[in-house]
Amino acid sequence: MDLVQLQRQLVDYRTSLYHEGFLDEQFTQLKELQDENNPDFVVEVVSLFFEDSERLLNELSKALEQQVIDFKRIDAHVHQFKGSSSSIGAQRVQKLCIVFRNFCEAQNVEGCLKCLQQVKHEYSIVKTKLESMFQLERQILNAGGSVPV
Amino acid sequence: MAEKSFETTSQVCCSTGSESLPILASPMESPLRKVLSRISGFVPSWGKKTAPPGRRIFHRDVEQDEFQNGTAHCLSSYYSVFVARLAIMVMLAILIGLLTVLTWHFTRVYTTKSLNTLAYGLRYELLQRPILRMWNILNSTSEITTAQVKLSEYVIRRYSKPTNQAEQIELYQMMKDITWALFASRKALNAITINYRNGFVQAFHRDHRSNNTFYIYSDLANYSISDTGSYDNKSQSSRQGWNDQFIHGNVSAIWYRQPLDPLTGEKIGKSSQIPPEDLINIAGPSQVPDGVASWHVAVSKYTDSPLLSAALPVWDASNKSIVAVVGVTTALYSVGQLMKELVEVHSGYIYLTSQEGYLLATSTNTPLLNNTAKGPKLMMAANSEDRVIRMGAQWLQKTYGNKFPPGHVVHVEKANLGGQHYYIDSFFLNLKRLPIVGVIIIPRKYIMGKVEERALKTLVILISASVCILAIGCVCILILTNGVSKEMKLRAELISHLDARRRAEASSNYKSQFLANMSHELRTPMAAVIGLLDILICDDCLTNEQYAMVTQIRKCSTALLRLLNNILDLSKVESGKLVLEEAEFDLGRELEGLVDMFSVQCINHNVETVLDLSDDIPKVVRGDSARVVQVFANLISNSIKFTTSGHIILRGWCENPNVSSDSGKFSPDQKKPMSALKTKLKHGNHMKKVSKKDNKMILWFEVDDTGCGIDPSKWESVFESFEQADPSTTRTHGGTGLGLCIVRTLVNKMGGEIKVVKKNGQGTLMRLFLLLSTPADGLEQQRQIDFAKHSVAVILALHGSMGRLIMSKWLSKNGVPTLEASEWNELTQILRELFHARTTNSGFDTHYSLAKPLRSKVQTLQDMKKLVYIIVVDLGLLDLSTEIWKEQLNFLDKFSGQVKFAWMLNHDTSNAIKMELRKKGHILMVNKPLYKAKMLHILEAVIKESYVEPQNRSPNGTKGTSKQGDSHECLEIDSTQFETCSSDDSDISEMTGANSVSSVGIREQLKEGTILKSGPPTLRNCLVEFTRLGLEVNNLRTEEDQCNGRPKFHDTKDVKCENPNSSEQPLVRSNVKDRDNSYTTNKAASEQKSLEGLRLLLAEDTPVLQRVATIMLEKMGAVVVAVGDGAQAVEALNCELDGDENRTNRLQTEICDSPPYDLILMDCQMPMMDGYEATKAIRKSEERTGWHVPIVALTAHAMSSDKEKCLKVGMDAYLTKPIDYKLMVSTILSLTKRSTKG
């Protein structure tokens, strides 16, 4: 595929991510932090986020399956999840986390479960989106081009 | 029997029960209701407060209406009360009714029964007596008759066979004597008759009416003894004929009547012949047909009562033939008499009748006989003239007819005779041949009358009493239940009110809570917008138009942020989350900065901003500097909004009874509220005197403007939220109306008050006081240099008249003679006057002559020869629009030998002018406006210079001046920096165009300044020079540091004074260090690597955040050690402490007394050990080393209370997530600077 076309595609894809609200300016800041010293900074952080998120989501699912639900723990997890998602700029996940925490505070099990599903869903979306974006970037890099800013 | 009786009783019970209940229910209920309704009708009249529910019980209609009006939830309670009342009343009614009925019933039944028994006895007794009498009479009559008969038999037997007339006469004489004896012995007898067989009649008669006694006899001549035989023979056959002949047919017989003495029987008169019709009733043989005694009732014309006559035959010796017939007549009069007597005692009527119904005796005086043509006849009882007797007899006849019950015994208790009730009893007395019926009629009234009357009265009394009790009871119930229902109603209302209030409070609280919680969400995007705009502005590729637009956007967002901040502040205060800080700050400095800032705005408006603080205001106070500044910023900006020309004065003084010199400038009416408040705040004053440690001071402030003013009616309401004095101002002046509201809440929170005060002249005067505490040593800084000693004089050549006036007053008070000039010509005039000897050539008009007072002042000044003149010149006095100003400068230059110039610059004074001034050697330059602190600076600089000059001038004068220039440059920059430091809010800092720098640096600067000033200038001078040099160099570096992305604002030479070395520290070391840091790095590098050389510890559990923050910090050149939780952070710190020797070799001299990390970034929410705990642990461990590693909190909440919490556990600052790049850098810088210095 043409390199230029690839680059344009990446830019378009990225803008669409911003537009659709999957990402916010925090991600931009993240990108700004990436330089020659840390060439894979964004990928690194995002994969960190994936790992962390998967762990947290597992914990949350487990915690919500318990007979006696420890809302404090869930709240802490969600808080953490919110922090990490906001740090990479996954704002839809972050917003859901806020809702989730409200349910937690209200000790609403059903709401929590529903939110968990939503969060999982959003997370998987954002994950696929980011992964495909990185895929594109990698393609560009492999093709010998530079990633457009 | 028992069963039967039981049945009957139970029936009775049932019947009475079933009867009494309905009776109670219906007739008792309805009058009850009426009574109660009447009561309830007038209840409201005597109890005005009686609630309508009382009436509800009875008036259903009203009740309905009321209920419709009433609230729904009260309905059930009303109903329950209503039902309860009704039930209680009904029960009461039943109870009382039962009691009444039972009482009445028992009293009545038993009395009636006993009385009836008694009455029966009485009646029986009453009737028994006349009957007994009757019986007696009969008995006696029969006895007498018998006696007469026996005597007659005896006499007749002796003279059985009268042979001759003489014997016959003797017999008759004998008979007469015997008969008289008997007759005389019985007074009651009416008559005794003896009818002999031969027809001869002897009779004694007693007329009771005339009380005469007569002897009646027939003529003897007609009778012969011989007749006797014949009579004997035909006795049986001719008895009837004898009889008839004897009584009626014997017409031939002549009757004689001889009156007798009733006692002796002697003849008292002549016997007279009487006609046969006057004859008394003489019993003949016909009356004794069987030869036995017979009875019958007869009448006689001599008596008006019936007579009872008995007849007995007198038999001859052989007992075979009747010799004579003896008749005894007794009047029944005495029976009647007895009856009358009886009836007199007991009322009523008694009568006796024969079986056929003929009246024999009555208790009345009515005649018993009928006078008919044939003579008197017996009367029927039914025809009696006495009404009662007649009716009684008729009633008996009607009731029973001829079928009398056996024995004729009748007892009737209630016979209605002519409208009255009577007892009627009849008895039957069976005498032979004369059965008698006795009837007694007693009016019921007599026996039962009283009883019935009493019973009726009792009943009436009982009923009325019970009705009364019922009524009272009902009223009581009504009142009681009324109270209860009222209370219930009130309670329900109270509960609903409480509920409503709680809900309202909750909702209000929710609102505030929501806004307060929203602060983070609102501020973050705004901060992002502003940050991004800043980046955009820094971008070089913008065209001019774009640049202008972006700048506009930047301004707008700033305004929006300000508005947001206002709203959030307000909601924060309302939700009670605003916590005032308690930190020392320099009040004067803050206010000066504020005035500096606003003066920039005001100059455009042609408004003068003047700060007028009295000298007694403490330099350092404790409080929330940001909030204090916010108060004045809001007030001043409000004033500026409405002031188009004139001035805005911020006055301040200290509430102190001892200070009287300053209060001179307030008119008496202004002082009045002060004194009033003084008493109110006496406690505060008292405290001040008692404890020097924590001085609470009352600081008074006034913001005085010459704007459009506020209508007095709005003086209170302007402090309400969203309230504006004139709604139309929104269009012209903008604003939300929140500013003053925030001011008031803040002032109140600081223990003060604010109000609008009446002002002479145009404009508004807001006066407020704050209750701030001063540190114990705060007052000691109240020292003043005695300027009079230094013999300086000041010429104030300023535009603003108000500022000039105030300044000159203050100077004169401090012993500095002043001259004032408001324009260029005036200034030249003064100068000429003062130095006319030296001014040889002047290119300017001299036709301006000084005013008289000024001239005299000038002359006095001229007298004081050794004065050092300082001319404070407003740059605005020069004509900057043309090139004339250069000439003017030249003119002034001529005086530079004798005077020192201090230039007041505008904020927009171009660099060219400054350069020119500097070239000319005018190195004292101060930005407008002029206030005390600046004046002090000028004065001190000049005085110092006047000391230094003699030393420096000789070796290299130019160098000296250049150095001085540098130092004064510093002075100038100083003032711009005030603007910076005093503005905490980002918006304000944006307005003034200064960068945000923590006040720490300024405080350092301040401290240095004061030390410099306080020390003896001559001794310190040398050191000062060097310090300045170092300071200057250092400033260069920091300026570059601060230049991040804002080169635009630093067209004037912006020098930072974050001097790491105070005068106490070794000068050389710090200089070397500074050079290392700043001079070796180029500008670009320093921009990037602002955190170069800092060792930071990052405690963050979220790996993503950890990574991001690490990269961020590392990019700026910091060395970052990241740990996952609080426990690790503590551990890492302790490790480093132990392995101190292995640390980097940076700043080796400080190893022994410096902590391992320059700063710790601490996430608040972490597993294992959260940020608060970790901080506490760190602070604890630090106690033994004496270090203080700055800890910056990272939180996701932006509330002041969170901040409060962070600061409480020992953190130094806090940042909100997501991390703002710039804010983090500036925070870290400010904290690390302090720590390295400290």
> Biggest interface in this structure?
A-B, 25 and 19 residues
Poorly predicted sequence stretches spanning 5 or more consecutive residues of chain B: 1-30, 34-70, 224-251, 657-693, 778-782, 837-848, 951-1087, 1139-1152
The profile of the biggest β sheet of chain A is: none
- Main-sheet strand order of chain B equals 5-4-3-2-1-8-7-6
Largest sheet of chain B: 8 strands, antiparallel
What's the helix and strand layout?
The complex is a heterodimer of chains A (about 150) and B (about 1250).
Chain A: H1 3-19, H2 25-33, H3 41-65, H4 71-88, H5 91-106, H6 109-142
Helix pairs in contact in A: 1-6, 3-4, 3-6, 4-5, 5-6
Chain B: H1 2-46, H2 53-56, H3 60-69, H4 72-158, H5 165-185, E1 189-196, E2 201-207, E3 212-218, H6 226-233, H7 239-249, E4 255-260, E5 272-274, E6 294-298, E7 307-315, E8 322-331, H8 333-345, E9 349-354, E10 359-362, E11 369-372, E12 375-378, H9 387-400, E13 410-417, E14 420-431, E15 434-443, H10 444-538, H11 544-574, E16 583-586, H12 587-605, E17 607-613, E18 620-623, H13 625-642, E19 646-654, H14 668-680, H15 682-690, E20 695-705, H16 729-733, H17 739-749, E21 753-757, E22 765-774, E23 792-797, H18 801-813, E24 818-821, H19 824-835, H20 852-863, E25 868-874, H21 884-893, E26 899-905, H22 911-919, E27 924-927, H23 932-982, H24 986-992, H25 999-1014, H26 1017-1042, H27 1067-1079, H28 1083-1088, E28 1095-1099, H29 1103-1115, E29 1119-1123, H30 1126-1138, E30 1159-1163, H31 1171-1185, E31 1191-1195, H32 1200-1208, E32 1213-1216, H33 1221-1237
Parallel strand pairs in B: 17-19, 23-24, 23-25, 25-26, 26-27, 28-29, 28-30, 30-31, 31-32
Antiparallel strand pairs in B: 1-2, 1-8, 2-3, 3-4, 4-5, 6-7, 7-8, 9-10, 9-15, 11-12, 13-14, 14-15, 16-18, 19-20, 20-22, 21-22
Main location (chain A): cytoplasm
GO molecular function (chain A): histidine phosphotransfer kinase activity; protein histidine kinase binding
Protein name (chain A): Histidine-containing phosphotransfer protein
